[in-house]
Amino acid sequence: MIFRHAEPGEHLKYDIREARPSDARGIISCMQGVMDERVFLVGEYYMWTEKGEQDRIRNPDDLTLVCQYGDRIVGVLTLQRGYYRKNRHTAQLGIAVGAGHRHNGVGTRMISYAIDWSRSRGIRKVNLEVFSTNKNAIEAYRKLGFMVEGVRKNQFIIEGMYVDDILMSLDLNQ
Ligand SMILES: CC(C)(COP(=O)(O)OP(=O)(O)OC[C@H]1O[C@@H](n2cnc3c(N)ncnc32)[C@H](O)[C@@H]1OP(=O)(O)O)[C@@H](O)C(=O)NCCC(=O)NCCS
For the segment 95-142, what is each residue's pLDDT rounded down to a tens digit? Predict the structure, then answer.
């Protein structure tokens, strides 16, 4: 457990921790819920099976964090390290906090943990991609030190409108 948050008078708390294989089903459900909103993530269905998810969680090169609220997983962060010698100094970050649990500091705490984890393993650069329409996410990443390093114009069509793919990264060399 790395963070506990409770609103005044609220008995449920947010527990943020590294995922266990037994979290696989809850992770899939959380990710699918955010995908079903259709406006934040590229995927329309979560690509990992329960078994695949468990294998991914066991991979020491990757980090999976979950945010548990009561007995439900309401946030998931994945960090996938580059597989080859040429890109092992990088990692790709993805995050999804479920509707109703956003803007409570969960995302910031999960990403901060992932940054510390990356540093401790010699990762020099953390990358992510975000829709240009996702202003809250872009602002959250900026506050954590991520900078825009590229834009892929009109990379997506969401609800009938072209949307740019914003490439952001955090340089951990300093
Ligand atoms: C983007 C996301 C990861 C941020 O996590 P979060 O727990 O909601 O964010 P935090 O509470 O840590 O807030 C960090 C900052 O983000 C911005 N922000 C987040 N949610 C916001 C909201 N609903 N309204 C306004 N600003 C918001 C604010 O700048 C905030 O800083 P502040 O607390 O000083 O105002 C989360 O909202 C989320 O998963 N959204 C849906 C899925 C998604 O967009 N994933 C990322 C795809 S690239």
Answer: 999 999 999 999 999 999 999 999 999 999 999 999 999 999 999 999
Say how many Å lie between the CA of residue 100 and the centre of ligand 1: 12
pTM: 0.95
> Which atom of ligand 1 lies nearest, measured to the CA of 131?
48
Can you list the domains of the chain with their CATH numbers? 14-128 (3.40.630.30)
> 85 C-alpha vs ligand 1 centroid, how far in Å?
33
Minimal-distance CA residue to ligand 1 atom 28: 140
What is the DSSP annotation of the chain?
A: -------TT----EEEEE--GGGHHHHHHHHHHHHHH-SS-S-SS----HHHHHHHHH-TTEEEEEEEETTEEEEEEEEEE-SSTTTTTEEEEEEEE-TTSTTSSHHHHHHHHHHHHHHHTT--EEEEEEETT-HHHHHHHHHTT-EEEEEEEEEEEETTEEEEEEEEEEE---
Output the CA 137–ligand 1 centroid distance in Å.
5
Residue with the smallest CA separation from ligand 1 atom 35 is 103
